[in-house]
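Deliverable D4.2, example record:
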Amino acid sequence: MTANLKQPAIDNRLLVVDDEPGPRLSLEMIFKDQFSVTTAASGEEAVERFRESPCAIVITDIRMRGMNGIDVLREVKRINPTTEVIILTAFETLETARQAISLGASEYLKKPFDLDHIQSVVERCHQQYLFHSRQEVLVRKDLNAAKHNFLEIISHELNTPMNGILGFIELLEDSSLNPEQQEYLATIRECSLANFERVQDILTFAKISMSDIQPHLSPFNPATLILNLIGKVDSPQSVELITELPDNLPEFVIAAKNEIRIILQKLLYNALKFTECGQVRVTVSFRFKGLHSVLLSFCIADTGPGIRADLIESGAIFDPFTLADSSLSRRHQGLGLGLSLCKTVAERIGGTLTVNSQPGKGSVFTLEVTAELDSH
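Output generated by the structure prediction step:
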């Protein structure tokens, strides 16, 4: 009874289901600092535990003795439809994947899982759970909250089938395909990722434009932020990706970390997309503005085709749905929202985004933002 009083809220509970102790213990170790983790060695045990203490997230293996992962998914969704269920598998078929997704699985991941990938998947699922479990409260607050709520619903509804598409592409890549089929599949992946990017740009632009919520300030390491971004991009072999970080860069600052990451990620992606060969250089510098604050400068320079002077001088390069050049847009299709999004976010956090460019010689985008020094 006393234990029940101390039981963590459902928002912070995660259930791991696997009849093999190795994966079960690994997942418990990975997430024990972030969640209150419960484990089950069978589907029957998992459903019993879930009935007693519903969880925000369930990670279940699909092939188990007795009740399998599909059965666990079905029962969990019947008890609490908002719980996010992640399916893990090493052997299953496309038909099983299709069945899992049709029953409401949030993700379908292959074993052995990548540590960074499964952490990002669980974080996204946790945010989705928090949103769905609290959306009624959000809608009651005010009209702005209702708009934000609508966009979150649209984002979830568009992302869910896209995650299914990318998951099935990954399964097909591991199957026996002839060269022609592999080429078709590569084209499907490229088109899917391009569509996914455009949807994300539209939704992010709409959220920022419609919201008056102040950016959240948090401590972060600027060098780590840059290195994490670099580690996640896929640069062509013909492009050299260079990073320059000063030795005396402050270890921790306090600023709008998430917004800075969004801007730099988009600028870096654009630089790599438009640079067919040469270099993309990411540079960070700073100068003190006082005893307790610094001006951080993030520069992303490329050797791409450059931007016309009239577009820069008029500011049109940062207008929504504007592309730098019609001939480039045919080769690198897009909506022209990326730079507008970056400019809007930069101004929202009190920063500035500028560009210097010469046609044929590349471009340099510079984000400057003030940050407080974190003494801890």
